[in-house]
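Hi Q.,

Before the meeting this afternoon, I wanted you to have the flavin-adenine dinucleotide prediction in hand. No need to reply - just skim if you have a minute. The sequence and ligand are here:
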Amino acid sequence: MNSATSATEAATPQPVVFHWYEAEVVAVEAVTAFVKSVRLRCPIAGRQRAGQHIDVRLTAPDGYRASRSYSVASVPDDSESLELLVQGLPEGEVSGWFLETAEVGDLVEVRGPIGGSFSWDGADGGPLLLAGGGSGVVPLLAMLRRRAQVAPDIPAALIYSVRSRAEAIALGELEARDRDEPGFSLFLRTTREGEGRRIDAGLVQAALDRIGAPTKVFLCGANRFVSPAADLLLAAGVPAGIVRTERFGA
Ligand SMILES: Cc1cc2nc3c(=O)[nH]c(=O)nc-3n(C[C@H](O)[C@H](O)[C@H](O)COP(=O)(O)OP(=O)(O)OC[C@H]3O[C@@H](n4cnc5c(N)ncnc54)[C@H](O)[C@@H]3O)c2cc1C
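Predicted structure with the ligand bound:
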């Protein structure tokens, strides 16, 4: 009887409990007018797979707390600190603090890493097809940084939709990778400058033609980007079973 009970208990998946750890802001740097790179020194640095996120919790002097999720932009080999790329939203409670107030020496709390299914490492293979809208590029950037480190021969393409070049995150790095890394191609669309075009079937097909049939596909951004992007990929023949999505809120 007792052993049957324990067998049942052993078979029941237990929720993972993440502890909150103190994290110190060790660097803050403007990346675009609306995005800051924030480096946090914390015990969970280096434990993440590329693409995973952490939760960050702020506590006001009156005890009010707010927590939000942020993808880790840095690669796992740095075990001292990790990098977040935070886009400030109008009236944004947590992103506004990062954009306007955060400075070196500030303390926050973090937990994670979280999100094992939205992650990639060299052993997972490819070709790798990535599509990001706005700040949704952050976990994909981490995957590209990791690819360059451990599996530069795996073909990869990034479809990146952003309002303007000035608002694009890490555009200099992405264009340098496109130029210097054989096997990686950037497909950039600006929705509010130039011809002001959203991603479409032609762009998706161009990315597929460049890398061949993908075995891993990651889509990330706001719902208004992820849903149509997923539809375009499926219409182009990408099997639904290899597509992973992450939605960043509104
Ligand atoms: C898994 C995951 C990873 C994430 N990674 C990142 C990241 O790397 N970088 C990053 O900048 N953000 C990321 N986000 C979004 C982030 O968690 C917050 O939602 C964002 O910073 C807004 O929080 P806030 O407290 O500033 O805004 P809030 O005070 O919660 O909201 C302010 C206003 O903005 C709207 N809003 C909230 N979220 C969004 C959004 N994502 N887009 C548009 N409008 C929104 C709200 O409806 C509200 O009107 C991620 C979200 C998830 C779920």
